[in-house]
Design goal:
39% helix; alpha/beta; 2 domains; 3-stranded antiparallel beta sheet; Rossmann fold
């Protein structure tokens, strides 16, 4: 009789490591050793010497790539929602109590399209790929914009822990599947009056007139049972971890296990304080457990590490795109 085999859950395992790190690494924080130029030299060496590179990415990476949720992009594509409802940025708009589904899904079509189905304004993700493309690399990210895969990273070595703007899930808890929304998104964008340019990218029409509602028959429904759908974004325990999610979670756990005692570079990019237990704290703990490991925290104004591992750490306060420029020189 075959023994039952349970697929590893990299998400749970990494959170457990993060919690262990919080408990054990309590000796204060450090900004790393050496001046910025010295840290960049050390980072180049760590990239060259690593047997494996684990990239942990947060919102700061997409911000560096120009996928900002406020400012010019928001004012250009959501000016009408800002004027009518007083919404100040894309993030808060995702929680706004719109008066009807037609309006709510018009908002979400734009939010999805401009953050998921077009390339970012700056080629930061593609330049990161150039830096590590021939290396033994795995990516874990809390970002839901799918920009790693758009840039060309191997999808078999990507773990999007918190969901994907490109997927819907049913409100029926019995349906543990996700559904691709690209076709729906393009139809909902066209229904609002957006027009494709010469490169096939939706833009505002010349007269700037667009609708804030989609037709009722375009409101998305679950293809399995016709129920309402929501975004596949982790907000509570209703989040659907589908087959692809579990496969990526297991692959991440396997990658960490195979390299846990080797020369690993834990490369943290733009991870803030919203979900540190998924990337930041586990990276600290795994570095502390492995004297051959290096922890690199690259962040605009938030680069630090625990004192216990500052000898193994690099902390560079910089825009990530600007830092990639320096690494390429």
């Amino acid at each position: 009789m075959k023994a039952n085999w349970k697929q590893p859950n990299g998400y749970i395992e990494t959170i457990q490591k993060g919690l262990a790190g919080v408990r054990s690494l309590g000796g204060g924080v450090s900004l790393g050793k050496g001046n910025p130029s010295e840290q960049i030299v050390r980072l180049r060496a760590a990239l060259a010497d690593a047997d494996a590179i684990v990239i942990g990415a947060g919102a700061g990476l997409s911000t560096s790539a120009g996928l900002t949720y406020s400012g010019e992009r928001f004012e250009r594509y959501f000016f009408d929602f800002a004027e009518k409802y007083g919404i100040g940025d894309m993030y808060s708009g995702g929680f706004y109590p719109f008066p009807d589904d037609e309006t709510r899904w018009a908002w979400w079509a734009r939010h999805i399209y401009f953050n998921r189905y077009i390339d970012p304004p700056k080629p930061v993700y593609k330049r990161l790929l150039e830096l590590v493309k021939d290396r033994n690399t795995f990516v874990i990210t809390t970002n839901v914009d799918h920009q790693f895969q758009r840039a060309g990273f191997d999808k078999e070595r990507l773990f999007y822990t918190q969901g994907d703007y490109g997927l819907f899930q049913s409100v029926n808890p019995a349906i543990r599947e996700t559904f691709d929304n690209e076709d729906w998104t393009t139809r909902a964008m066209a229904a609002q009056g957006f027009v494709r340019d010469a490169n096939g990218i939706f833009q505002l029409p010349e007269d700037g007139r667009i609708a804030m509602r989609i037709p009722s028959d375009l409101i998305p429904r679950c293809p399995t049972d016709g129920s309402d759908v929501v975004m596949n974004l982790r907000s509570d325990d209703s989040f659907v971890e589908d087959e692809g999610w579990h496969r990526a979670s297991a692959s991440y756990a396997d990658f960490l296990r195979r390299h846990e005692a080797g020369r690993v570079l834990y490369l943290e990019l733009g991870v803030g304080a919203n979900t540190p237990v998924i990337i930041k704290y586990p990276f600290w703990q795994m570095t502390a457990e492995n004297p051959k490991a290096t922890y690199a925290c690259l962040n605009y104004s938030e680069a630090f590490c625990p004192r216990e591992i500052d000898g193994q750490s690099l902390c560079v306060n910089s825009d990530i795109g600007a830092l990639l420029d320096k690494l390429e020189r």
